[in-house]
Amino acid sequence: MMLARISPRLAFALALLFITLYRILVIEGIDLQLFYDEAYYFWWSLKPDLGYYSKPPMVAWVIHFTTSLWGYSELAIKAGADPLRRGRDGGLRHR
Predict the structure, then answer these.
(1) What are 70-80's pLDDT values in tens digits?
(2) Which residue of 4, 7, 12, 32 sits 20 to 30 Å from the alpha carbon of 47, by its own alpha carbon?
(3) Of residues 91 and 3, which shows the higher confidence score?
(4) Do 5 and 45 meet the contact criterion of CB atoms below 8 Å apart?
(5) 82: in domain
(6) Is pLDDT above 80 for 65?
(7) How confident is the model at residue 67 (pLDDT cuts 50, 70, 90)?
(8) What b/e readout covers 45-79, taking b as 16+ CB neighbours within 10 angstroms?
(9) Rounded distance, CA 18 to CA 33, Å?
C-alpha cells in the first residue's frame, strides 16, 4: 500500500491545528487558579491608570482588554500572557 504524499504546508497546518487544539483542551481541562501577581495585576486592571506602585501599566492594560472581551475568568486574565511572551521572544530573536 502506498502512502499519499502530504505537502509540507499541509503537514505544518495540521500539526499547528493539533497543537492548538491540544493546548485549548489542556487549558479548559485543568483548574486554572491565579498566582498572587496575576491577582494583583487583575486588581489594577479594574481601574486602568498610567502607572502603579511598583510596576508599569502594560500588563494591567492587557488584562483589562482581555477581560473586557471575555469576561472576568481565569482564562481571560491569563489570555494576554502568551501573545506578549511571543512578541518579546520574537523581538529578541530578530536582534
Answers:
(1) 899 888 888 88
(2) 32
(3) 91
(4) no
(5) yes
(6) yes
(7) very high
(8) beeeeeebeeeebebbbbbbebbeeeeeeeebbbb
(9) 25
55 DSSP 8-state letter: S
Does 24 reside within a domain? no
pTM for this entry: 0.61
Q: Is 27 among the domain residues?
A: no
**Range of the structural domain that residue 51 is part of:** 32-93
Nearest to 67 by CA among 92, 41, 94: 41
pLDDT of residue 31: 67
Number of domains in the chain: 1
Instruction: Read off the C-alpha cell for 63.
Output: 488584562
Domain-embedded: residue 65: yes
C-alpha cell at 56: 508599569
